[in-house]
């Protein structure tokens, strides 16, 4: 059992390292392939470790139901594709199993009853199962918030470009190639889908599935409605930018109103006790000395 736990923990560390190692762009990979010499052999990572991880990913995908895999794939897309579906499933399985075995064996060695050790092992496995899911959903939520914050300014630049004479795709391409962040990446993918033969409607709806932010949904609906009715796209984008800017200000005001309530917990449990010790400590010590003297 210790050997199995050690293998699972090491496998979890390996898969996590594989998932978050820096990725090369397509151009860098092509340059590496072009510059490679026939005498240069691939290292152990590409010969052994990477195929092994891909095999584990395939096995993990076979063990998961199709509807669960579909929902996880959608969440991974909304998070910006930090890992592949197979890699994420391997991380979940290895983290839950390794943590359950480790805590169960530790509980048995410490003299805990078998029933309690089994309960602790099951709870630890649940924690190992929920941890990666919580991280993935948090990353998706932060990405949606970043897109929502960047959308008004991006639309202002697109409106200026459209009113200067560019078309919608040309304006988006000019702004997206100079901008950074998840919103610019999403619009670059929309343009790539259109270049591959997809229609504007299908590309925008795909972007809405990858980034289901409220502002993105209203923007996509307005663009598609303007396309159907023949309205000027510049006026529609300007109206959407004004509305999104008002929503961003309202969201900032709401967050400012919630700040005092969020500060209450650290004030009561951390700041006020330290303040009382500093302010009332000398007085309490002097009173204790006076009572000892009497």
Overview of the molecule:
The protein is mostly helical. The protein folds into 2 domains: 2-145, no CATH class; 146-248, Up-down Bundle (Receptor-associated Protein), CATH 1.20.81. 84% of the residues lie in helices and 0% in strands. It contains 11 helices and no strands. The protein has helices spanning 2-19, 26-35, 44-63, 66-78, 85-109, 114-163, 168-176, 182-195, 200-210, 214-229, 233-293. Helix 3 crosses helix 5 (85-109) and helix 5 (85-109) packs antiparallel against helix 6 (114-163). The longest helix has 61 residues, at 233-293. The model is unreliable at 35-40 (pLDDT under 50).
Summarize it:
The protein is mainly alpha-helical and 294 residues long. It has helices at 2-19, 26-35, 44-63, 66-78, 85-109, 114-163, 168-176, 182-195, 200-210, 214-229, 233-293.
What layout of secondary structure does this protein have?
Elements: H1 2-19, H2 26-35, H3 44-63, H4 66-78, H5 85-109, H6 114-163, H7 168-176, H8 182-195, H9 200-210, H10 214-229, H11 233-293
Helix pairs in contact: 1-5, 3-5, 4-6, 5-6, 6-7, 6-11, 7-8, 8-9, 9-10, 10-11
Number of strands: 0
Query: Kindly, what is the distance between the CA atoms of the first and last residues, rounded to a whole number of angstroms?
Result: 66 Å
For the biggest sheet, the summary is: none
Sequence of secondary-structure elements: HHHHHHHHHHH
Average pLDDT, rounded to a whole number, is: 79
The helix content is: over 70%
**Poorly predicted ranges:** 35-40
The rounded Rg comes to 28 Å
Beta-strand share of residues: under 5%
